[in-house]
Amino acid sequence: MTSPGWLAPLSAAGVRIPRIGLGTFNIPSDDAPALVRHALEVGYRHVDTAMMYRNEPGVGQGIRDSSVPRSEVFVTTKFPHTMAATGEVADAAWSSIRALGLEYVDQLLMHWPNAEVPPEQTFAALAPLVTDGVIRSVGMSNAPAALVRRALSVTTLATVQVEHHPYLPQETLHELVAAEGMTLTAYAPFAEGRVFSDPVLTSIGAKYGKNAGQVTLRWLLHKPRTVVIPKTARLERLPQNLDIGDFELDPDDIKRIDALGATHRRFFDPPWYLFAWDER
């Protein structure tokens, strides 16, 4: 599948990250092999999972069952904040690698920050695995800019992965990743399905012959150094998320979508999260 230049993989921390990936949150492990295999067959080259999703075995099976060479698939997984201590983080990484059934992972993220373990300690403990190539790159998930900067003081990060959609613009983190040569990975880009009934997004989609989800992905990828990992459990929807290379949003349409961010709505905010979110 030929993609326009703006959809080319982004380079960060020594890896090249495909800009559209498959999110697998809430996908049962038994269902993951067929989903992942089909996603790779239709053109995906980036798959995102996590230890907390409890589907790493199924995701890894789908990758291994695919005819796409492992070297062409960018695999991201995450370890939980409960395993962020110096003595546990390497074990967490190896646990994910074994569960996936792969020799290495392309990107390992700390899933949520740990208020009791400094990020400097966590990422210093991962350094030997990066040096050995077992983990090709590291990053953070659900972290505000202040914590990302602390991790950057001890290592190079490939990405910060956060909830990001038209109702949550994440401007502070966009500025940070641009300055540091990182990427921003947008999870829940469809705002848990809410974009599909949004009158602004649906009307813009009608103009281009696209649905609201495709408009949302195009808007997100209009932003430099941004990666998106939309999730779907339906095989027929997989190609739709890739079918966004044949249109460009008008500046006025971008402004209309930008305006939706004034609501600053967040849908993932667990009660045990003890850090202040970025206000922009």
Q: Could you list some keywords that capture this structure?
A:
280 residues, alpha/beta, eight-stranded parallel β-sheet, 10 helices, 10 strands, 37% helix
In short:
The chain is an alpha/beta fold.
Largest sheet: 8 strands, parallel
Q: Taking strands numbered 1, 2, ... along the chain, how are they ordered across the largest sheet?
A: 3-4-5-6-7-8-9-10
Helix content: 25-40%
Q: Return Rg in Å.
A: 18 Å
Low-confidence stretches: none
Spell the H/E element sequence.
EEEHEHEHEHEHEHEHHEHH
Helix-strand makeup class: alpha/beta
Number of helices: 10
Tell me the span between the first and last alpha carbons: 36 Å
Explain this structure.
The protein has 280 residues and is an alpha/beta fold. Helix content is 37%, strand content 14%. It contains ten helices and ten strands. It has helices at residues 32-42, 56-65, 86-100, 119-132, 145-152, 171-180, 199-208, 212-222, 238-242, 251-259; strands at residues 10-12, 15-17, 22-23, 46-48, 74-79, 107-110, 138-141, 159-163, 183-187, 226-228. The strands form two sheets. An eight-stranded parallel beta sheet has the order 3-4-5-6-7-8-9-10. Strands 1-2 form a two-stranded antiparallel ribbon. Helix 2 (56-65) links the parallel strand 4 (46-48) and strand 5. It is globular, with a radius of gyration of 18 Å.
